[in-house]
Fold this sequence. Notes:
By secondary structure, the protein is an alpha+beta fold.
Amino acid sequence: MSPQQLPAQIAPFRLARQGQILSGKLELAKMKRLAEALSENEGEVGVELHFGVDEQGTCYARGHLNTRVKMICQRCMQPVTLPIDSEVALGFVSSDDQARNLGPEYEPCMVGNDPLALAELVEDELILALPIVALHEESSCAPILEQLQHEAEASDQTQDKPNPFAVLSELKGKK
């Protein structure tokens, strides 16, 4: 495969037997499930996968994915760009029994008779690599949080709040 042209569909067992290497880029915009977790889905993911067969006869794909994603920081609610550099180690299996017997160095990837969509495989791995909670460095959020606090305090000062005890003073005066 050329470095920039990745196939849409792959036959993982065939690629493993041939010892193929896939290297190139995929658009994040085409990954709809991943887009649900992102604030923007622009950009590309670099893909490098080495297919092979190990000593136990397991067909596998090893490699890495790297990209930068934009999410919402859960501390300050502003966009944050996070690097994703994920190692991939998939063992291709066609049954649950094979998946149970797969070595611990691989994550099982169930493959049927139909070709596998490469973009979906990459999307699954990226979703697993996302942080549970997206955050800026704490020092990056501090100025934004201070500004929001000052705005909240200014808003509190401009609002005339009724005294909750005013009713009691009226009752006291009626005696």
